[in-house]
Write a structure and sequence with these properties.
This protein starts with a helix and ends with a helix. The chain is globular and about 60 Å long. The strands form 3 sheets. The protein has a two-stranded antiparallel ribbon. It has a two-stranded antiparallel ribbon with strand order 3-4. By secondary structure, it is mainly alpha-helical. Helix 7 packs parallel to helix 11. It is 63% helix and 5% strand.
Length: 315
């Protein structure tokens, strides 16, 4: 080792299984595709909530259309390349996750340093403590944007992670299909379908995220970056990954029971979030003005009636 340290380090790197340069290329390509779709895929522009400096930012609502465009590209990939690209993704979830986490760490550092570029930058109240590590984690700048109205926090909030989660699930289902000789278990089908529905629901209701704490209050630091781009796709797809390695066939009764519980949960989730968004958008609206709430010290209102408490009670 002491006579050839470079050779030893090279052999260690060559034997590494959790890091692959091609995985980083795939992650960067995926993020570039999502960024491109924001500009080229059609969608209406709406204004966000009034910020504490009195301004309202414009946002392009085209996340669902981006999903449709992505599905079209994936279908084209299948017809030109077959199952090989999907199987590669399924076989390289760890390197892809490491690559995504690495990107998050670097992007968060760049965002933290960029927040000092001007005294006029609108900072997040919770990410401006003066302690570098804490502010790096929480996010110092509230709405970092690139030219052309490209809001980094808004773009990362739903598109790369949620669509990536659905794509990972499909790739893992393809892997199970190959391993089982041309079939997918009903448990895998339920996971892929219900989680796909969750993704579609979130993208279809993209406008609702403009009133959430992530957009209105939190800075864009490592916490949100990692959560959006790494935690969501690679943690939420663990169910499908497990079923790829441990296929489970459910009885018809069990499958129906699971489906019913999921449908109930999705109904409660969407009802509560729609009501909460309506209340935040216009608390005087006839549809929500009857709701009871508690006003917090910060001036925000916490609903204590309607659908929202049901969602809180069910987690």
């Amino acid at each position: 080792m002491y006579t050839d340290p470079v050779g030893v380090l090279s052999s260690i790197y060559a034997a590494t299984t959790f890091w692959k340069p091609e995985a980083m290329c795939v992650v960067l390509g995926w993020l570039a595709w999502q960024a491109l779709c924001y500009f080229i895929v059609p969608g209406p522009k709406v204004q966000g909530v009034v910020m504490r400096n009195g301004e309202r930012l414009d946002y392009k609502i085209n996340a669902f259309n981006t999903l449709v465009a992505t599905v079209g590209v994936l279908v084209s990939v299948y017809y030109t390349k077959g199952l090989a690209p999907f199987l590669w993704v399924a076989d390289n979830t760890l390197p892809l996750a490491v690559a995504a986490a690495t990107f998050c760490a670097v992007q968060s550092l760049v965002l933290y340093l960029a927040s000092f570029r001007s005294p006029n930058v609108l900072l997040a109240e919770g990410g401006n403590s003066g302690y570098p590590i804490y502010d790096y984690w929480m996010g110092r700048e509230l709405n970092p944007r690139l030219p052309g109205g490209f809001d980094l926090k808004y773009i990362c909030e739903l598109r790369p992670g949620l669509i990536g989660w659905a794509v990972l699930n499909v790739c893992l289902a393809v892997k199970q299909y190959v391993l089982l000789g041309g079939r997918v278990t009903n448990s895998m089908a339920l996971v892929v379908l219900f989680e796909a529905y969750y993704v579609v629901d979130a993208l279809w209701n993209e406008r609702a995220i403009l009133t959430t704490m992530d957009i209105t209050t939190d800075g864009f630091g490592f916490m949100l970056t990692f959560g959006d781009l790494t935690w969501v796709p690679f943690t939420y797809s663990l169910q499908a990954l497990y079923l790829t390695k441990n296929p489970i066939t459910l009885s018809r009764t069990t499958a129906v029971a699971i489906a019913c519980v999921n449908l109930l949960g999705l109904y409660i989730f969407r009802s509560a979030n729609s009501e909460k968004n309506a209340f935040r958008t216009d608390p005087t609206s006839p549809a929500v003005r009857h709701l009871k709430y508690i006003e917090t010290k910060s001036g925000s209102r916490l609903l204590v009636s309607g659908c929202n408490p049901a969602k809180q009670a069910t987690g």
